[in-house]
Amino acid sequence: MLMGAYDFDIPVTFRHRIRFTKDAFAEGNSVLADLLEAERERKVIVFLEDSIDQLFPVLRQQIQNYLETQTNLKLTEIVIMAGGEDCKISKTQIMDGIIPIERNGIDRHSYVFCIGGGAFLDVIGLSAATAHRGVRLVRFPTTTLAQDDSGVGVKNGINAFGKKNFIGAFAVPYAVVNDFQFLYTQSAHNNRSGLSEAVKVALVKDGAFFDWLEENVESLTSLEPSALEEAVERSAILHARHIALGGDPFETGSSRPLDFGHWTAHKMEQLTDFELSHADAVSVGVALDTLYSARCGWLPEKDAWRAVEVLQRLQLPVWHESLELRDEEGSRLVYRGLEEFREHLGGALTVLMLEGVGRGVDRHSVDEPLHDSCINELKEVSQRGVPT
Ligand SMILES: NC(=O)c1ccc[n+]([C@@H]2O[C@H](COP(=O)([O-])OP(=O)(O)OC[C@H]3O[C@@H](n4cnc5c(N)ncnc54)[C@H](O)[C@@H]3O)[C@@H](O)[C@H]2O)c1
Ligand SMILES: [Zn+2]
């Protein structure tokens, strides 16, 4: 009788293709055509978020013309669906993505184009990752946050049991096309708030990028295109580089540096029933954990206030009333986010804190009374401004 134990290492390499352009579907723009492998005729299905369909009324026709004239691809259907955080809560949404994939005979050599905000990409990404156990997904993120962070990642997911991204899958997209034309139809607030992820990744990974954000904060606040687009591109590449070269693309370890400030952010989103956007919640979470890092003596205090000031000059929140919600014992509900964060990761609680601008450090506990005092300080700052 054979009763052996066999361990195999399975080497797998993925290519993560990311492109930046403007008007990806315009006649003569070869960025997309060059990306697609189309020596034989392949099928494409397009999922388009309804808000983008309304804001860009010629887009459908442009996509059709582009695919016909510049590629070998056959467009089978353009499916219009709702986006926003609500689409991540709906229980039918994954199937709403899978059914058209099946109906159109999309196989593993066909393409699924997904055009929309981070929430829409998360849902359709999950449909594409699960139909046939994974078909080729090309993401076209349309918000600042989705272009500078979520769209260039390798995660998909929906919310369940009141928890963010409880159901999901890691899947490297076939390609990501960041088309800057989409940035300019967002509200000014949403556009700026997506930069909270750029501030986050700068604080964690790249001090020189943080200095640049600080120097260019006025142009960024007024959404000056060259500054905005540079911020988006630099942030996206820092995120993608960490995923590709950081040694743990599918987050099997306990450390998740790109989730700096996110244990509070995710909990605040949930406590507000997702009224508070991810981008705004990240701004608050980043401000809090930056100040906490200073109050623990790891980060010079002046650097903490620099970060808070950049967020405030971008007109982003550094405190939110959901932080004041408490249980019967008087403990802030936001601290339940720590256990949920640990559970989501598995293993030991690991939260990233800062020990310099551009330098993160893993910690394994949070001192609640000290953190409480940071919340109180930021509440004051949000009313009166950064102390001089
Ligand atoms: N997968 C990941 O790795 C990852 C990482 C970070 C965040 N996320 C997720 O991304 C989601 C947030 O994404 P988001 O900030 O893009 O929000 P969103 O997708 O909810 O979009 C925000 C709003 O903007 C609208 N919109 C989209 N594009 C627009 C445009 N060009 N012009 C005008 N309006 C537009 C949407 O319809 C929506 O109402 C959250 O669910 C968050 O958890 C995922
Ligand atoms: Zn985030």
Description:
By secondary structure, the chain is an alpha/beta fold. It has 2 domains: 17-185, Rossmann fold, CATH 3.40.50; 193-384, Dehydroquinate synthase-like - alpha domain (Dehydroquinate synthase-like, alpha domain, Up-down Bundle), CATH 1.20.1090. It is 44% helix and 16% strand. It has 16 helices and 10 strands. The protein starts with 16 loop residues before the first strand and ends with a helix. The relative contact order is 0.10. The model has no long low-confidence stretch (mean pLDDT 94). Bound molecules: nicotinamide-adenine-dinucleotide (NAD) and zinc ion. The site of nicotinamide-adenine-dinucleotide has 30 residues, from helix 2, helix 5, helix 6 and helix 13.
Tags for this model:
16 helices, 388 residues, Dehydroquinate synthase-like, alpha domain, binds nicotinamide-adenine-dinucleotide, alpha/beta, six-stranded parallel β-sheet, binds zinc ion, Rossmann fold, globular
